[in-house]
Amino acid sequence: MRPAVIRYQTERLHEGCLVAVDIPNLEVPKCANCGEQVFNYTTDEQILAAVCAQETARQMSPIANSD
After folding, report:
1. Is the pLDDT reported for residue 60 higher than 90?
2. Whether the predicted model's global pTM rises above the 0.70 cut
């Protein structure tokens, strides 16, 4: 396994809402022989951090607070 940086798009539940998130630089272990990407605990932590950061930014935007 070698570290690789990939672009990753997913949807995750966050506080009961489905959130689309785009991560341009997700670090994942990748097999040097077959190219399989392994999503482990560290990878999941990066995804969760991106979801939380995106939702925090959305909640603080003036458009989100205009309702």
Report:
1. no
2. yes
